[in-house]
Structure to design on (492 residues):
């Protein structure tokens, strides 16, 4: 990969910088979105993303192609949890909690009808954001990765280190909670 | 719950109503192939409950998708862009920093310092303090990179890389198959009214496979495809704009995991891209340029 022997270091540094510009910079908006939802606010998100980008730069040579956004978001997610553990130790969900959440049985069928879909569609941004913020962490990150960052089931499963079926059930549970809340039906959350 | 629970389905979809709901999610998420999507849609047509679930999901997705996204401020983009470049200046003695004119930056340094100092407090950036000047320059540069995403050379290189990648996945990398430039040139001329020289360099180990049209930033552009051993080389020739600066010296780049070489001559701005090794790509470029000079008639724009 490197060019002439005497210019090798310089060239590869340049190439790494170019790679960083092309792999990381285009996805900063997505990175901020994810960090904002995981940490809860915009100012913290910028700090987290900056730390994540330092890590991404250090590891840019290891990026083997594929979806750059998913690669960066994986780093952002890890950085978010590291940051949360350091700055807000109380709010981090323990691993045991995650497993418990997956075991929770699905909510009862509510024979919803189309007016509910209309209510959901009309929900204002503040209500949607509040509903997402209230989701348990594992559900929130799944729905954010899918519906806001646009990752595929497989990419999310790889990132979270869980089977694709788990991603699907978390997503369904997360959306179920959101729809219940936004659709104006205040069932007891399971 | 559902009246369909006990009726067997032959469509391979889950019998369990909860699992079936997951399939609705998968449909909304575009995760199903055509056959499965068709089967799910048939079930929905027969089962109002599923159809309702689908409608709610679509509504929810719309509501979530319309949430305001955090904007990437210029400051923030500059901070992040600086991560890569600052390291250059520190480690690598002479590169990017040497290119920028020191005089112009002095003003920026003073201006930027208060803001920059704040960043350093929350992060361990002190060792980079010496490079604030570069950060300031990059602040404007990086903004421009976003603003001119359509014609900036970075995004152009990425577009070239994407086109090349797509051609590797396609059934054939070329739209017109011919090793004869007298076929390729007129074909490109006929399609988009412009064509670069298309020398066949088979004797040098670079066989002309043919040509295709790449669309980059709304503009159709001629692309030639050469084969070198097992590797394909795509050569995109963008007609030179008047304002484009001449770059007679080839510039080595990379994008999307491919190596690129970029140079311009009087008529075209060339982008050669390949998964071949750098020396092979450089050799190709050298020979291509020599071939054009040897036969300038073939090099005039169509």
């Amino acid at each position: 990969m490197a060019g002439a022997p005497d210019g090798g270091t310089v060239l590869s540094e340049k190439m790494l910088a170019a790679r960083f510009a092309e792999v990381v910079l285009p996805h900063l908006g997505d990175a901020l979105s994810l960090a904002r939802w995981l940490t809860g606010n915009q100012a913290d998100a910028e700090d987290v993303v900056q730390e994540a980008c330092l890590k991404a730069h250090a590891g840019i040579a290891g990026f083997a192609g594929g979806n750059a956004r998913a690669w960066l978001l994986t780093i952002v997610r890890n950085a978010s949890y590291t940051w949360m553990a350091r700055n807000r130790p109380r709010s981090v969900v323990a691993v045991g909690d995650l497993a418990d959440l997956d075991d929770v049985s699905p909510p009862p069928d509510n024979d919803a009808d189309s007016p509910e879909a209309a209510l959901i569609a009309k929900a204002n941004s503040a209500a949607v954001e509040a509903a997402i913020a209230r989701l348990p962490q594992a559900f929130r990150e799944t729905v954010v990765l899918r519906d806001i960052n646009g990752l595929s089931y497989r990419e999310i499963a790889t990132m979270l280190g869980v089977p694709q079926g788990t991603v699907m059930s978390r997503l369904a549970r997360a959306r179920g909670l959101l729809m219940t809340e936004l659709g104006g039906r205040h069932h007891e959350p399971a | 719950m559902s009246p369909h629970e006990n009726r067997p389905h032959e469509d391979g979809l889950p019998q369990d109503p909860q699992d079936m709901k997951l399939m609705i999610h998968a449909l909304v998420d575009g995760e199903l192939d055509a056959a499965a999507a068709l089967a799910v849609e048939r079930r929905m047509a027969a089962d109002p409950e599923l159809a309702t679930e689908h409608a709610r999901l679509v509504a929810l997705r719309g509501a979530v998708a319309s949430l305001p996204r955090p904007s990437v401020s210029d400051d923030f983009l500059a901070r992040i862009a600086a991560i890569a470049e600052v390291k250059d200046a520190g480690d690598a003695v002479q590169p990017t920093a040497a290119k920028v004119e020191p005089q112009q930056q002095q003003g920026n340094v003073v201006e930027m310092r208060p803001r920059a100092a704040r960043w350093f407090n929350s992060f361990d950036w002190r060792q980079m303090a010496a490079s604030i000047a570069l950060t300031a320059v990059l602040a404007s540069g990086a903004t421009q990179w976003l603003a001119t995403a359509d014609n900036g050379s970075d995004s152009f290189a990425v577009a070239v890389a994407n086109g090349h990648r797509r051609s590797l996945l396609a059934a054939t990398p070329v739209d017109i198959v011919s090793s004869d430039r007298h076929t390729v040139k007129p074909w490109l001329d006929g399609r988009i009214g412009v064509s670069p020289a298309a020398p066949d360099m088979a004797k040098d180990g670079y066989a002309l496979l043919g040509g295709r049209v790449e669309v980059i930033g709304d503009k159709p552009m001629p692309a030639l495809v050469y084969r070198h051993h097992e590797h394909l080389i795509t050569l995109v020739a963008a007609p030179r704009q008047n304002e484009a600066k001449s770059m007679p010296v080839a510039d080595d780049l990379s994008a999307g995991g491919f190596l690129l070489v970029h140079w311009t001559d009087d008529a075209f701005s060339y982008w050669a891209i390949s998964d071949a090794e750098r020396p092979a790509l450089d050799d190709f470029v050298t020979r291509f340029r020599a071939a054009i000079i040897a036969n300038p008639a073939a090099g005039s724009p169509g």
The longest helix of chain B spans residues 102-122.
